[in-house]
Amino acid sequence: MYLQPRIQKKVRYPVPVELMCMVAATLASAALNLGQEYGVKCLGHIPRGYCLKIISRWLLYKMKFLSLPEPSLPPMWLLPKIIFQSLPIALVSLSITFSMASVLAKKGNYNIRANQEAAALV
After folding, report:
1. How far is 101 from 16, CA to CA, in rounded Å?
2. How far apart are CA 117 and CA 43, in angstroms?
3. Is the dihedral of CA 14, 18, 19, 20 positive or negative?
């Protein structure tokens, strides 16, 4: 990416430029009203109210009053249909994680093990 090398020269820690670009694009979409004015497909309203930090019996009991449905397993008949689509995503995720760990290990002057990185994703 074009911004990453320029920012790395000025800042010592890794900056999530991709995340910053997503936030900027989201704010631009909302400010310019791209969904209604120009027909750009937007996600729309995301329901709120589910707190992942507080999982207790009370929360599970009160789940019907929150905006999200009660968690459940997905239908198992979907598994054969999505398994071949999810494998490339998992491999790309593993390769990105390993390359990022390699970069940080080189900067920090320590060794990493590929098996340990793969186990961390599980």
Report:
1. 15
2. 33
3. positive
Q: What are the pLDDT digits (tens) for 1-55?
A: 567 777 778 877 777 777 788 888 888 888 888 888 888 888 776 665 544 444 5
Query: 94: exposed, middle or buried (C-beta count within 10 Å: 0-12, 13-18, 19+)?
Result: middle
* Residue of 100, 114, 104 lying closest to 18 (CA atoms): 100
> How many CB atoms sit inside 10 A of residue 98's CB?
15
Nearest Cα residue to 97 out of 82, 112, 107, 85: 112
Taking a C-beta distance cutoff of 8 angstroms, is the pair 77, 96 a contact? no
Question: Of 43, 37, 62, 39, nearest to 51 (Cα)?
Answer: 62
Q: Which pTM was predicted? A: 0.39
Residue 26 contacts residue 42 (beta carbons within 8 Å): no
Q: Taking the domains of the chain in order of start, what are their residue ranges?
A: 1-71, 73-122
